[in-house]
Amino acid sequence: MSAAATAAAIRSRQLRAAEVTEAALADIAARNPRTHAFTEVTAARARAEAAAVDATIAAGRDPGPLAGVPYAVKNLFNLEGVTTRAGAKIERGRPAAARDAFLVRRLRAAGAVCLGALNMDEYAYGFTTENAHDGDCRNPHDLTRIAGGSSGGSAAAAADGLVPLALGSDTNGSIRVPASLCGIYGLKPSYGRLSRQGSYPFVAALDHLGPFARDIADLALAYDALQGFDAEDPAQQRRDAEPVSGLLGAGPGGLRIAVADDHFARNGHAEAFAAVAVLARALGATRRVTIPEAARGRAAAFLITMAEGGQLHLPDLRDRPGDFDPGTRDRFLAGALLPAGWVVQAQRMRAAYRAAVLALFDSVDVILAPATPFVAPPLGQAMTELDGRILPIRPNLGVHTQPISCIGLPVLVVPLADPAAAGTPHNLPIGVQLIAAPWREDVLFRVAAALERAGIAGAPQPLG
């Protein structure tokens, strides 16, 4: 069941949170081995939280809007009593977390039940969730293919119905890429909207946290529950919560919607652009806009990512280089050795690029762009062809997401309900980015909900 239906059934006492939790734990035990989405199942915690929800209801008190709803988190969110591994061998020997991450506490306060931690790329540095330490995460639509990354376990678990909600992180596209490849909704909110306290960092200047779900109402419920000011995250701005669940019926009327061209009309396979065209037709969006300097903005994001990531892990690169995945280690080493002048210029470029992009939103409310340049490639495939060039898959899965995340815009990935409408290979899922100005998540949810009602957006069923 959806998160909304589950919470309603539990609140009305048609179901008990305890029985929902037991069913979910049994389902994970039976089906997780095929995707390897979960790396840690917190069964004792889940049972205790479910019992607390049931006791609250029995006492006649409100358990919260997500009463008894199962969820799980990317393995870089702190869970009290659990070591936060961040997909890395090095972290396994660290002490267990002393308390939950802020967003985990928000979901618990809303009545949700945490089932565990989910697979990811090592230290969130990747787009495939092919993990040398925890094993590869597989796409539930085709088990021979990647789930995307770095929040691949989060997307796979939600897409496969193991949980109706999951949390992930997005630095350069790590929510949006797996959401597209697994055919579900994923939200990267505005930079500073949701607290990152209690999550393992990657790039402080670019890190975002956000939810995944199989339908837009569930994504809205999760987003509403996650909002709240937290002084422990210096990036978070003190803003009132702006719930979106009540806006889903408003529709996109009056919104100015355009399609991104130039960089976003290149660097991909036919299905990526066909998916954007399907949404544009459904929304009557005929205007095209150029996001200026997107390629240079992406280049700046690359340099900032490399430099901050390399400096963060420099002590372990010196003392324990053999305990990294070799591919991750080499990228961190390269970042640690970047000239300081390059990083300064990258930050200047990012600031100028952000100002130029923000000016677009004086005349447009939502921009459509591909979320991934192609559908999920096979596990282990290293190279692909893009615009006549043979290029590595891993970095180029983020070719359309990186230019957006580096300037903090809110983005909601909408899955195409019928991948055949975009002619995707093997009928694999693919998504489209809805992009808005900072703090305008509301317009994204309005557009996504209208597309879902029209049957254009929706999570296609994975393998049985």
State the gist of this model.
It comes from Falsiroseomonas oleicola. The chain is α+β, with helices and mostly antiparallel strands.
Describe this structure in words.
With 464 residues, the chain is of the alpha+beta class. The chain has a single domain (3-233, 244-453), classed as Amidase signature (AS) domain (Amidase signature (AS) enzymes, Alpha-Beta Complex), CATH 3.90.1300. Helix content is 37%, strand content 16%. The strands form four sheets. An eleven-stranded mixed β-sheet has the order 1-3-2-8-10-9-16-17-13-11-12, sandwiched between helices. A two-stranded antiparallel ribbon has the order 4-5. A hairpin with a 2-residue loop joins β14 and β15 (389-392). It is globular, with a radius of gyration of 20 Å. The model has no long low-confidence stretch (mean pLDDT 97). It holds the Pfam family Amidase. Residues 19-444 form the Amidase domain. This is AtzE family amidohydrolase.
